Amino acid sequence: MNVFRAARQHLYRMLFGTAASFVFVVVFERFFGHSSIPFAICTVVLFAMATGMWKYNCPRCGSNLFMRGGIPLPWPNAKCSNCGLELDRTEPPATTP
What we know:
The protein has helices at about 5-30, 35-50, and strands at about 65-70, 70. The chain is mostly helical. It has one domain. A two-stranded antiparallel sheet has the order 1-2. The model has no long low-confidence stretch (mean pLDDT about 85).
């Protein structure tokens, strides 16, 4: 699996985790009343999940797929912002001998 697909799967896991956290907080508030504890739990869990984004780097130059000019964004780059490598290709680029 190439690095772009793995980074995109990380994005989908984060989207699912965010939606599940929202549902968890709403259900907790509905049945047990207002509390900051479920929000704090979801914040810690989502923060821990988000730290996984730092392992998706360009294989050529090492630039992170989620960073654009020093700003982290939630979706990965299909083309490296540093060296221009197409990261969504399934086969390596052709080289001439």
